[in-house]
Amino acid sequence: MLAFGAPGLMELIIIGVILLIPVAIVVALVVVLTRSRKASGNNPNLKPCPDCGRFVSLRATTCPQCGCPLQRQQ
Ligand SMILES: [Zn+2]
């Protein structure tokens, strides 16, 4: 009984990798869809940060993501 479980480790690792691949694909798709929704949302109160590209409020003086000072630039 002491040797029990030894042969199953490799099988568990292989099964885990096989299961992780579709899970990772689904997670990646969800992340892409979520980001595309945020980016495509035409919110007039938001503008992209010139440094990191994150959408921040027009009232914000600095970017909460990277700390870039936000000024009106045309
Ligand atoms: Zn930024």
Descriptive tags:
binds zinc ion, two-stranded antiparallel sheet, mainly alpha, 74 residues, 45% helix, single chain, 1 helix
Structure commentary:
The termini are far apart. Helix content is 45%, strand content 8%. It has a two-stranded antiparallel ribbon with strand order 1-2. The protein has a domain at 43-74. It has one helix at 8-40, and strands spanning 46-48, 55-57. The radius of gyration is 23 Å and the shape is elongated. The longest helix is centred in the N-terminal third of the chain and has 33 residues, at 8-40. It has 74 residues and is mainly alpha-helical. The site of zinc ion has 8 residues, from loops. Zinc ion binds next to loops. The chain crosses the membrane at residues 12-33. This is Zinc-ribbon domain-containing protein. It comes from Novipirellula artificiosorum. Keywords: Membrane, Transmembrane, Transmembrane helix.
Ions, cofactors, ligands: which are bound?
A: zinc ion
Beta-strand content: 5-15%
Question: Which percent range fits the helix content?
Answer: 40-55%
Structure annotation, total helices: 1
Question: What's the Cα radius of gyration?
Answer: 23 Å
Largest sheet: 2 strands, antiparallel
Structural class: mainly alpha
Listing every helix as H and every strand as E from the N terminus to the C terminus, the arrangement reads HEE
Strand order of the largest sheet: 1-2
- Uncertain parts: none
Mean pLDDT: 84
Number of strands: 2
Between the first and last Cα atoms, what is the distance in angstroms?
75 Å
* Overall form: elongated
Keywords: Membrane, Transmembrane, Transmembrane helix
Transmembrane segments: 12-33
Protein name: Zinc-ribbon domain-containing protein
